[in-house]
Structure formats: structure tokens, C-alpha cells
Amino acid sequence: MRTVIYSMGVSLDCYIVGPDGNGWGAPDAELHRFHNQQTSELGLHLLGRGLYEVMVFWETAEERNPSALASVSELDVAQLEFARIWKQLPKLVFSKSLAAVEGNARLSRADPVQTVQALKEEDGGPIAVGGPDLAATLTAHQLIDEYHVFVYPVALGGGKPFFADHTRVNLELLETRTFSNRVVYLRYRRT
After folding, report:
1. For FRET with 71, which of 44, 98, 114, 183 sits at 20 to 30 Å CA-CA?
2. Mean per-residue pLDDT of the chain
């Protein structure tokens, strides 16, 4: 059975975006390399429309290669590596409003719950879930096996939460790691 993972960066008070809808944190080179490793181990990435529209940037990031510059930072190198990994990774985008998707992605208008139930039974690598709305639906149906939380050292006081309101999930802590930029990684398994 395939493992389904919900992974996002969050503020200390567990919001993935602030009250104004803007993002507030980006990985440094060390954290980006960690994300690269995790992403390279996936068999499939599930996305909702909103996150897909953010992540489609990576489909052409390699063409904007900064290697022609006199000096390329560690972060540039990590980002280019991520772009290569992302382009190869199969993706399934759940949307009723998108007309088409790019790259190694398929568009689905099917019920995500039924789709993920079937995907979990197939052979293959872990499945990542991206986007809080899609994750909330799958969490409500106990289809997410692991939660990977990257806690950034900032409190936002409101915004879009990692978990939907009135969500209860019992978790067992499997792993922690603190990065040099003070981001703390927490890996939990649903019990």
C-alpha cells in the first residue's frame, strides 16, 4: 500500500499563508536540498488548482538557468536541481476550472477521495498531497498517512491554516530536524 504524505511549510501558529494571502517563507539552500531529496523519492504528486498554479513555475525554471552568471549560489543550484526533479515527477491535478495542465501532469475532474483510495492500492512510490483544501478533504476521509510540517520561526496571527477547522488527527512523532535557518521539520504518522 502506498503512503500518502501532506507536507507544507507553516508558521509557528500553523498557517500556510498569512491573513493577506501572501507567502512569508522560502527555503535556503540547505532546506531546498532536503526538499529535493524528499521530492525525488515520490512516485506521484497530487495538487489542487491553486497550488498547481504556483508550482507550474518549476516546469520552465530550468530554461531560466542562472548558470550563465559569473557566480551561481548554492540556492540557485538547489533550485535548478528541484526543477529537474519536479519536471520528471508525475503529477495529478484536481480541478474543475482548469482547461489544461503542463508538463508531466494529468488533469482530473474525478472525486479525489475515490481516486486516492484507488491510488493507495497500486504499486509505486509515496504520494504527496499539495494544497490545504485537497489535504483537508483527504484528511477528513483518513487517507493521509503522514504529515510533514516545516515550522518557520514566525507567527502570523491568522491566514490559511495547515489543518481545516474542526479537524482532529491523532499523530505519532517519527522524526525531527532543525535546519540552520531555524526551520524545524516534524514528521508525523497518523495513528
Report:
1. 183
2. 92
